[in-house]
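Forwarding the complex inputs:
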Amino acid sequence: MNLRRDVFQAIADPTRRAILLLVATQAMTAGVIASNFDTARPTVSKHLQILTECELLKQEQNGREIYYHINAEKMKDVADFIEPFRAMWEDRFNKLETIMKNYKGK
Amino acid sequence: MEQKTKIDAENGKQDLTITRVFDLPVELLFKAYMEPEIVEQWMGTKVLKLENKKHGSWQFETKDPHGNIVFKANGTIHEFIPGQKITRTFEMDNAPFDVQLEFLEFEKLTDDTSKLNMHVVYRTPELRDQMLKLPFAYGINMAHNRLQEVVNKLK
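Prediction (whole assembly, two chains):
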């Protein structure tokens, strides 16, 4: 699986884009983020999980609360327009490598 | 995560290079470019024709689950040296892009590792940039524009 590719799938979703734009202004808890959407709370949690997994968001413990921050470094990667092109080839070449390693084993 | 694939695309130029080091002997790397059923697996497209010889030609086609053709490309092979080099053209059907020229060089590093150097030449620098942006254009332009604003604020 290609992590880079997932980042672009992550930002292809309108709700997740809205979450990123919201959190970009300031760090927020899941509850506060969810209160900005009509979507059910578990759905928002799922979106937060995906955004955290692909490192667009970072979690930070503050007392009993977990705050979500935007990961500036990763966001810059995404903004680089060559990155999706590179990720596309990386993905293809990773597949090629896996296929041929198995081929060798036969 | 380590980035194994590198893209070198200088501003204002009409070419680019894609390089990648593989944990594979060069023979196996080359085979992945030669055998239609293997090409299909990693390129994610159907291979209609692949004539691995000088003056040979190739044709790829991808259909969506409904059977509509979403991608079709073809080209001619100009040079084919097993285990070393493929020179070929690449043209997308029904797309406003001109033919591009591709030089693929396969290099043995060790017995178990190899390197692919892909030099792609486009007709103009503008066409090159359009091709570079293509993977981005598939439905995520909107995301890019809004997120670009965010990123600008982060700088």
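The interface with chain A takes residues 1, 3-7, 9, 18, 20, 22-25, 28-29, 31-32, 38, 41-44, 116, 131-136, 139-140, 142-144, 146-148, 150-151, 153-154 of chain B (CB under 8 Å).
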